[in-house]
Write a structure and sequence with these properties.
- This protein is an alpha+beta fold and 237 residues long.
- The chain is 30% helix and 35% strand.
- It is built from 6 helices and 13 strands.
- It has helices at residues 46-63, 100-105, 134-139, 145-168, 212-215, 221-232; strands at 3-9, 13-18, 23-28, 31-34, 39-42, 70-73, 78-82, 85-96, 112-122, 131-132, 171-183, 186-189, 198-202.
- The strands form 3 sheets. Strands 8, 9, 10, 11, 12 and 13 form a 6-stranded antiparallel beta sheet that branches. Strands 1-2-3-7-6 form a 5-stranded antiparallel beta sheet. Strands 4-5 form a two-stranded antiparallel ribbon.
- Helix 1 (46-63) packs parallel to helix 6.
- The two termini are 24 Å apart.
- It is an enzyme of class 6 (ligase).
- Pathway: Purine metabolism; IMP biosynthesis via de novo pathway; 5-amino-1-(5-phospho-D-ribosyl)imidazole-4-carboxamide from 5-amino-1-(5-phospho-D-ribosyl)imidazole-4-carboxylate: step 1/2.
- It comes from Halomonas flagellata.
Length: 237
Amino acid sequence: MEKRQELYAGKAKSVFATDDPDHLVLHFRDDTSAFDGERMESLARKGTVNNRFNAFIMGKLQEAGIPTHFDGLLSDTESLVKKLEMIPVECVVRNIAAGGLVKRLGVEEGRELTPPTFELFLKNDALHDPMINESLAETFGWATPDQLREMKVLTFKVNEVLKTLFAEGGLLLVDYKLEFGLFKGEIVLGDEFSPDGCRLWDAATREKLDKDRFRQGLGGVIEAYEEVGRRIGVDFS
């Protein structure tokens, strides 16, 4: 398959067209950002680590019957993915209170959330990804009620699969965000799943092993990502 022109460059990934109209190349760069791009840095190996981490997770989700856009690794930093018509709504599940939930509600970080919470955010960097609800999504045409229901079902199915996977590695899946799109009319999981888009803590010590290490200046960001990967069986070689 022939890689062609760049279609989009985000904060940490670039998307390229191919000679197949149904497929794209997803390129994971070493760039890292926080606070809506206010802080940017390049971290060696990050592109490779996240590409392989994402491939592993997408494979596990596909085995569990969750449709994803991932079709295979092309290189250390590139993957072949289906071309989706993206839905501009992020789905967020929180199993443990952290991050924005703590700031908004004043609850204690680390509180277990039973049942887990489910939230929707509009994917819009200029507006800092504001929280929305189903009514707003329907009114403004961002997603239909049927699409929202299917996205919620799949998001919680992801939670079931990954909470178990990470627990086997002595890790807590604190929270995560997912993005979905349409491929030939079907709701499909898109974007990526890596420590960039979720929170993962050591189950025993509650040490943060995710992007919060970058946000909070804790250091050892990529080393933490690799540690998480090794615990669940990701091959970084």
